[in-house]
Amino acid sequence: MFIIPPERITNMKVAVVGAGKLGTKVIEALIEGGHSVLVIDKNEALLDKLSSQFDVMTVNANGKEIKVLYRLDIDTYDFLLACTDRDEKNIVISSFAKKLGCSKVIARVRDPEHMNQIDFIKDTMNIDYIVNPDLSITIEIYKYLVEKSTLNTGIFTSGKVSLLEFQVSRLPTLIDTPLTEFRKILPDMLAVAISRNGKIIVPHGETIIHRGDSIYVIGEKFPILELSKKVHRKDKLVHLQKVMIIGGGKTGFYLADKLSEFGTAVKVVEKDEERCHYLSSHLNDVMVLHGDATDLSLLLEENLEEMDAFITATGFDEENLLLALIAKQHGVEDVIAKISRMSYSDLIELIDVDMALNPLDIVASNILRFIQGSKRIISSHLIQGQAEIMEIIASNNMALMNKPLKNLKLPHGIIIAAIHRGITAIIPDGNTVIREDDRVIILSLLTEIPALEKLLRTKKTLFPTS
């Protein structure tokens, strides 16, 4: 979680080196937020594609060359993000840009050997923020598996407002209820998200609450705490004893390391023999198995049905989904899949996994919160790695100001969850109007990051950067 002192809102200049998937995702959100973006890449075809989609300045060059950064006046930029396909290059580019006067620099670094000495790298190379997609997704999986009990009193509390997650089956009156009837059952509360078959949904009036759903409810702190006493069992946290991870890549490595340190018996199945040798020599108390996880006999021999959790983290979405389905069919309680393509979103619900995560969504959100955070966001927290709940300070030059919420035409993946106005907490309805200096709590799916940035976009630059 970021805890950030509020400052005046301003549009910024951001340079992005590397026009791959991560760079493109961040660029789109920054453009929607009204910021000036420069993209540097050696691949001219990628740059042509970007410039046809977005209003960006592109430069076909090697961002590692000091003369290129100098010629582009990098000292006038607020941020530089280095997200090429090589860690070393990203570290060097960020360091050079900082030395040449860029205000803040961000580097994507993925190699575990670099992460083991990340503080030294940051200090020595003068890098402000380092992001790691594999470690980011690992943290979200770890929180889900190991820290479930932290949800007992709400995972997000600010001022007089708290957010609570619970199984709908613990409050049977909600089962098969349309959202339009929700407040008749829980007055002065708002359902802001539903977890259904591994997918986070932002509910709306036509949404029906199902028996197997988990629901996220926001309201004033003390009524939420009273509700928590009714819907949570004291023994909710299940001991995590046995976990199987499919795929010994960077995500599998980080997750096995953290779970082993927690005291869980971990098995990693990896088909590449050389990678198995690396894992065996770099992981403590982890069983590394060389084999093809699509061979069901191998999984059954390794006691698949006795696992408390099963995580698929190969580099292939189709394989991850297939293996997740197999694990569910064999009764594993918690099944988590790493998925990169949003086109598989509907398929995820049919498979009934417990959690499906996209590392690009998570790390893009982390980058944007670092870039935008000091300008407009007080705090931010991820929910199951698929949605973000944040608190902002409303300013008169934001698009969401001074009109009833029902007139904002919010995307289906975004909801205004609560408002702090002075010492008063407001659980909004369609007629609620956001005023200047309100502290507004917003929940957004990570897939809606560009739309969220557009919503928070300033109408014009009122306070130019120095």
Q: How does this model look, in words?
A:
- With 466 residues, the protein is of the alpha/beta class.
- Among the domains are: 1-131, NAD(P)-binding Rossmann-like Domain (Rossmann fold, 3-Layer(aba) Sandwich), CATH 3.40.50; 242-332, NAD(P)-binding Rossmann-like Domain (Rossmann fold), CATH 3.40.50.720.
- It is built from 16 helices and 23 strands.
- The chain has helices at 21-32, 44-53, 66-71, 87-99, 112-115, 118-125, 133-146, 182-185, 221-231, 250-262, 273-282, 296-301, 317-329, 345-351, 359-376, 449-455; strands spanning 2-3, 13-17, 36-41, 57-60, 79-82, 104-108, 129-131, 156-158, 161-167, 189-196, 199-201, 214-220, 242-246, 265-270, 286-290, 309-312, 334-338, 355-357, 377-383, 387-393, 414-421, 424-426, 439-445.
- The strands form four sheets. It has a six-stranded antiparallel β-sheet, covered by helices on one side. A six-stranded parallel β-sheet has the order 4-3-2-5-6-7, sandwiched between helices. A six-stranded parallel β-sheet has the order 15-14-13-16-17-18, sandwiched between helices.
- The longest helix is centred in the last third of the chain and has 18 residues, at 359-376.
- It is globular.
